[in-house]
């Protein structure tokens, strides 16, 4: 798809609204309304800056897109939402131009609409079940639920209309929240609303979890995350940064010595996986976690104002096919790489990354190599990366994930000229809390075992988000946090 300038998209939407004015729309009329494309920066310009790529709908576009919704009585889209937002309700309010009401409906169940509207994979969640998409036999033609959600959240931010949730009178109960990612933010807000004291413990110097250190500025501006943290502080939550639970303080200390009545663990999955191939210890090999943390949290892209060390790469290979791989590849371009190659051992159809992120990466010049996987990383006599030996693959029978298993093609090796390798094949859970908390049950991958209400094997200790699920989405982590918060509130009410 060729690039369309934002103003042209705005004009097209305005023309559609004019044509539809005064008409009583039936289902077939709504299905015939064209999907509204997301305005974005010109690819030639944006790959040289860290500004947000997707610019957000114009008001004309959001009204047109909202008119595509059929307002299905059975609302199938809701079952695809991990926090069960009243999707038809907020879309109808947006169609009527009542953005305050639309946002209020969203915030009945979701605390982070500006964030979820940007980074959640709606195409595999709410939009997967959309009747419009099914009618057109293309999920990419579903109503753009996330884009509408983003618009109404941004509208309130720009109008400074966001309000601080009310909290009940102080109960005297104390809850410790470990980590400050989406699951923890959700727990902190829901528990604080009930009048309990909340302290958030964050290991880094800035709160926000993966939303700050992992997701780049060009996908999620950090000012939006900061706004949500400030809302928690305005509610009365206490925030302690540079505080590493398991080292600075153990979980047992929080309950036995510090008097916390409950603890929620939302530390995410931040231990990077590697491929265990020859050459992974060479200079110029990075985990995506380290690379993105240097670029995002430590702002290595602000070269004139930041002293953050960052490897000066010219020819980069990114290994993986998820959103983290896309973030790493697109960040490498913005950090000055001449070439960025992304290797994935299956085909594009099997890639777990969002369709929009893959499209943006292609527009920016990332070169994709499907059915490819590294055999070894090659270095010179100073132990620096000089190349990547690659194997070709073909797809065989489906594996346990339901995707066809990649099978090596014999004698297919070849070498790519590369000076930097970024490994983005997933994460495991940091073992620190597991090793310093006797009695806390974990599974074979190191994830904390918790029931459907977030309860762990330890009385009064709850967990949710990536530390339980493994790598997941922001909205899934929020769903986990919501259930854990309800369980914590029920426990404290019973006490």
Integer count of domains = 3
Query: Can you say what the CATH homologous superfamily of the largest domain is?
Result: FAD/NAD(P)-binding domain
Overall 3D shape:
globular
Q: What spatial order of strands do you see in the largest sheet?
A: 3-2-1-4-16
Please indicate the percent range of residues in DSSP E strands (runs of 2 or more).
15-25%
- Distance from N terminus to C terminus (CA atoms, Å) equals 59 Å
Instruction: Report the top-level CATH class of the largest domain.
Output: Alpha Beta
CATH topology of the largest domain: FAD/NAD(P)-binding domain
Name the structural class: alpha/beta
Helical run tally: 19
Extended strand count = 16
Largest sheet: 5 strands, parallel
> Any idea what the CATH architecture of the largest domain is?
3-Layer(bba) Sandwich
Helical content stands at 25-40%
Could you list the spans in which at least 5 consecutive residues all have pLDDT below 50? none
User: What's the rounded overall pLDDT mean?
Assistant: 95
Overall radius of gyration: 23 Å
């Amino acid at each position: 798809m060729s690039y369309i300038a934002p103003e042209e998209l705005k004009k097209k939407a305005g023309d559609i609204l004019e044509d539809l004015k005064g008409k009583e729309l039936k289902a077939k009329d709504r299905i015939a309304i064209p999907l509204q494309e997301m305005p974005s920066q010109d690819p030639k310009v944006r790959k040289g800056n860290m500004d947000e790529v997707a610019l957000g709908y114009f008001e004309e576009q959001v009204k047109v897109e909202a008119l595509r919704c059929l307002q299905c009585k059975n609302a199938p889209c809701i079952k695809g939402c991990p926090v069960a937002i009243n999707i038809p309700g907020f879309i109808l309010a947006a169609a009527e131009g009542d953005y305050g009401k639309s946002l209020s409906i969203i915030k009945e169940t979701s605390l982070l609409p500006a964030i979820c509207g940007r980074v959640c994979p709606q195409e595999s969640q709410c939009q997967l079940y959309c009747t419009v998409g099914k009618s057109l036999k293309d999920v990419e033609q579903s109503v753009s639920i996330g884009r509408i959600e983003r618009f109404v959240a941004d509208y309130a931010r720009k109008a400074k209309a966001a309000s601080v949730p009310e909290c009940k009178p102080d109960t005297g109960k104390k809850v410790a929240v470990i980590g400050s990612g989406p699951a923890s933010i959700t727990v902190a807000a829901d528990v604080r609303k009930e009048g309990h004291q909340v302290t958030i413990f964050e290991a880094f110097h800035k709160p926000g979890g993966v939303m700050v250190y992992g997701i780049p500025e060009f996908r999620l501006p950090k000012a939006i995350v900061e706004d949500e943290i400030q809302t928690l502080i305005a509610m009365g939550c206490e925030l302690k940064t540079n505080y590493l639970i398991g080292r600075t303080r153990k979980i047992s200390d929080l309950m036995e010595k510090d008097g916390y009545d409950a603890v929620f663990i939302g530390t995410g999955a931040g231990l990077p996986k590697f491929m265990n191939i020859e050459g992974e210890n060479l200079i110029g090999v990075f985990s995506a976690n380290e690379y993105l943390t240097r670029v995002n949290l430590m702002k290595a892209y602000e070269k004139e104002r930041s002293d953050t060390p960052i490897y000066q790469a010219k020819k980069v290979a990114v290994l993986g096919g998820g959103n983290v791989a896309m973030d790493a590849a697109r960040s490498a371009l913005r950090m000055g790489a001449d070439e960025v190659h992304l290797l994935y051992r299956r085909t594009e159809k099997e890639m777990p990354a969002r369709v929009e992120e893959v499209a943006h990466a292609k527009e920016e010049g990332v070169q994709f190599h499907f059915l490819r996987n590294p055999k070894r990383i090659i270095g010179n006599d100073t132990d620096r990366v000089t190349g990547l030996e690659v194997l070709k693959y073909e797809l065989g029978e489906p594996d346990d994930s339901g995707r066809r298993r990649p099978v090596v093609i014999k004698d297919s090796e070849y070498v790519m000229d590369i000076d930097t390798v970024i490994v983005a094949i997933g994460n495991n859970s940091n073992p620190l809390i597991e090793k310093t908390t006797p009695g806390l049950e974990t599974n074979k991958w190191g994830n904390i075992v918790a029931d459907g209400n977030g309860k762990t094997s330890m009385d009064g200790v709850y967990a949710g988000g990536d530390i339980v699920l493994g790598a997941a989405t922001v909205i899934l982590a929020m769903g986990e946090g919501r259930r854990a918060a309800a369980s914590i509130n029920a426990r404290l009410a019973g006490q």
